[in-house]
Specification:
single chain, 274 residues, alpha+beta, Phosphorylase Kinase, domain 1, Transferase(Phosphotransferase), domain 1, 2 domains, six-stranded antiparallel sheet, two-stranded antiparallel sheet, 10 strands, 34% helix, 18% strand, globular, binds adenosine-5'-diphosphate, binds magnesium ion
């Protein structure tokens, strides 16, 4: 995939008040570059199909989260959400600017099962970032390893990509990532915090087991298994030795029924035991 900007010869050089350096990652919608703003390194994302409204929406969601900073303990949760700093247009293309994170995405660590304490450490920070989004009134709706970034210090974790984020109880585009999206999100029902709980569960399951809950080569089949209420995810304990409580937490988080899933607070408490 490429964006309009890198389709041509220009893949480095000045872009408005920024200087592009190199490609850091690609998702379904855009290419992420490292760039300089003066002496400061930033990440600039160029949309595959220019979409100013979407970029502004992401900035609005991010601003709502950032406003929680001044609210006592909530400020600490906000630190796990990568803020959108700027949105701008250049020769018809749309760009979004964020702090650059040097540690890569969690997807780079998903080739094999991680030790439980590492997964729990990552899980706690992920849960805290998503708590901040929920407190600001939004559901992320695209939690998956590709959208979780590490800082230069691997202990720093940041949730990014709020392109599917939507206000609680609103119905959005029927957009979702197979393998991580809840049955309700796949059916395009009103968005609820339980959708994000499911996706956190799917991400943690993958970290611990080394596979997504219904992993198969064909995304349509993966969606079918996610939707099929007669086919619960195989317990993680069938693949790896796991404390009962943590196995139970993953099973509940991946429940087909949203009301059976744990709250983020419960997830955080349980993950803190490991
Ligand atoms: N702030 C950042 N710092 C470093 N790399 C990033 C940053 N944001 C995104 N990336 C990388 O670029 C990829 C695509 O960015 P993302 O915002 O997820 O776009 P998409 O909406 O296309 O999925 C990510 O999966 C990640 O690997
Ligand atoms: Mg993404």
């Amino acid at each position: 995939m490429s964006c309009a900007y890198c389709n041509g010869d220009v893949i480095q050089g000045p872009l408005g008040s920024y200087v592009i350096r190199e490609v850091k990652g690609m998702g379904g919608q855009r290419v992420a570059y490292s760039a300089l703003a003066g002496n400061v390194e930033v990440c600039i994302k160029c949309f595959n199909t220019p979409n100013l409204a979407l970029a502004q929406h992401e900035k609005m969601v991010s601003d709502s989260v950032q406003r929680l900073r001044s609210r006592g303990d909530y400020g600490k949760l906000v630190a796990h959400v990568n803020p959108v700093q700027d949105v701008f247009q250049h020769r018809g293309d749309v760009f979004l600017v964020e702090p650059l994170r040097q540690g890569g995405s969690l997807a780079e660590q998903c080739g094999q099962a991680l030790p439980v304490f590492t997964a729990a450490f990552i899980g706690r920070k992920l849960v805290r970032g998503i708590m901040a989004l929920h407190l600001a009134g939004f559901i992320h709706r695209d939690i998956k390893p590709e959208n979780i970034l590490f800082g230069a210090d691997a202990g720093e974790l940041f949730v990014t990509d709020m392109s599917l984020a939507i206000a609680v109880y609103k119905q959005g585009l029927a957009a979702a990532t197979p393998g991580y999206a809840s049955p309700q999100q796949l059916r395009n029902l009103a968005a609820s915090v339980a959708d994000d709980v499911y996706s956190i569960g799917a991400t943690l399951y993958q970290l611990i087991v080394g596979l997504r809950p219904f992993q198969c080569a064909n995304p349509e089949e993966e969606v079918e298994l996610t939707l099929d209420s007669s086919r619960p995810a195989l317990p993680a304990a069938e693949f790896v030795k796991l404390p009962d409580m943590l196995n139970g937490l993953l099973c509940r988080a991946l429940s087909k029924q949203p009301h059976e899933r744990p709250t983020l607070r419960e997830m955080h408490e349980e993950l803190s035991r490991h």
